Amino acid sequence: MRILVISDIHANANALEAVLEAATDYTDVWCLGDLVGYGPDPNRVIDMVRDLPNLQCIIGNHDAAAVKMLNLDTFNTEAKLVIQWTQNQLTPENHQYLVDLPEKTELEYVTLAHGSPRSPIWEYILDTRTATENFEDFYTPYCFVGHSHVPVIFYLGDEQIMANMILPDEFTRVTLTPRAILNPGSVGQPRDRDPRASFGIFDADEHVWEYHRVEYDINGVQERMRQANLPKRHIDRLNIGW
Ligand code: ZN
Questions:
Q1: 199 C-alpha to ligand 1 centroid (Å)
Q2: Distance from the alpha carbon of residue 156 to the mean position of ligand 1, in angstroms
Q3: Which of 47, 62, 72, 216 has CA 20 to 30 A from 98's CA?
Q4: DSSP letters along 17-57, please?
Q5: How far apart, in whole angstroms, are the C-alpha atoms of residue 104 and residue 237?
Q6: How far is the CA of 149 from the centre of ligand 1 (A)?
């Protein structure tokens, strides 16, 4: 069984379309939250995600704010503007879809959480110290997270006290051994200086985890952001992947 793992689409339909075209031979999809925020296509993206096969999806901080489950004051001014814009765009069905998403999902051998298993909505796992602490907050061999928009693997061997970190490139393909925290990177707003959409494929039989990048029509999504008067900084950052 091959599972497509995606995160942080952020209402970027062009990037999601490119990922779905590039990903092959998967039967299931895990989506790690932040379907909306920043981008111009909240409803289109939610509609596309809802149609994905055997989907497990969890809520991200932007999703929670877009349905008023989180205080907007926790976001910076520009992010807040887009969340308010998104609140006005969402159809009642898509609003309800986000409301109903769980914060954390535990499957047979994986845990899914947007930020971290310890604090699913908010915490960023950016360093080995935070990762090490978070290994105490899930009980499955593997945990998949998003939120930082940076593809990364943290792993902890049997006798180890501190987690190790791997910053993968697009050709990284590893056979996993318990335990590990894995981030597929961001589909719609990468922040590792590579503007291409990022995603992962998890082979659940072989425990193989592989990273992929795919180019998409950045100009097209930027044009729709301009038309919607979304903040310039969010438009510009798509070009540099930051
Ligand atoms: Zn995000």
A1: 14
A2: 25
A3: 216
A4: HHHHHH--S-SEEEE-S--SSSSS-HHHHHHHHHTSTTEEE
A5: 29
A6: 6
